[in-house]
C-alpha cells in the first residue's frame, strides 16, 4: 500500500511514522520518501490499521490514489 503524508517534512517525522507502522506490524517492510511525502508499506495488515496508527502519531495520512 502507498500512503501520502503531506505533513511529513523531515527525518524525525519519518522515524516517528516508521515506529508507528512497526508498532502495528513489527515485520512490515517500510519505505519512506520524505521529499515525495510518501510511505510504502508491505504487510498482511489492513490499510486502516496503519492509517489509524500514523494518525495517532500526529500525522495526517491518506491512501495515495
Individual helix count: 2
Shape: globular
Count of domains: 1
CATH architecture: 2-Layer Sandwich
Q: Per CATH, what is the topology?
A: Alpha-Beta Plaits
N-to-C series of helices and strands: EHEEHE
Number of strands: 4
The N- and C-terminal alpha carbons lie at a distance of 10 Å
Derived structural class: alpha+beta
Radius of gyration (CA) equals: 10 Å
Under the CATH scheme, which class? Alpha Beta
Mean pLDDT: 97
Q: How are the strands of the biggest sheet laid out side by side?
A: 2-3-1-4
Instruction: List the quaternary state of the chains.
Output: single chain
Helix content: 25-40%
TL;DR?
The protein is α+β, with helices and mostly antiparallel strands.
Report on this model:
The protein has 65 residues and is α+β, with helices and mostly antiparallel strands. The chain has a single domain, classed as Alpha-Beta Plaits. The chain has helices at residues 11-24, 47-56; strands spanning 2-5, 29-33, 38-42, 61-63. A four-stranded antiparallel β-sheet has the order 2-3-1-4, with helices on one face. β2 (29-33) and β3 (38-42) form a beta hairpin. α1 packs across α2 (47-56). The protein is globular and about 25 Å long. Pfam families: HMA. This is Heavy-metal-associated domain-containing protein. InterPro entries: Heavy-metal-associated_CS (IPR017969), HMA_dom (IPR006121), HMA_dom_sf (IPR036163). GO terms for molecular function: metal ion binding. Residues 1-62 form the HMA domain.
Amino acid at each position: 500500500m502507498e500512503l501520502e503524508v503531506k505533513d511529513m517534512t523531515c527525518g524525525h517525522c519519518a522515524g516517528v511514522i516508521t515506529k508507528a507502522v512497526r508498532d502495528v506490524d513489527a515485520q512490515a517492510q517500510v519505505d519512506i520518501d520524505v521529499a515525495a511525502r510518501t510511505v510504502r508499506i508491505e504487510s498482511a495488515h489492513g490499510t486502516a490499521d496503519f492509517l489509524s496508527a500514523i494518525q495517532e502519531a500526529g500525522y495526517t495520512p491518506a491512501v495515495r490514489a
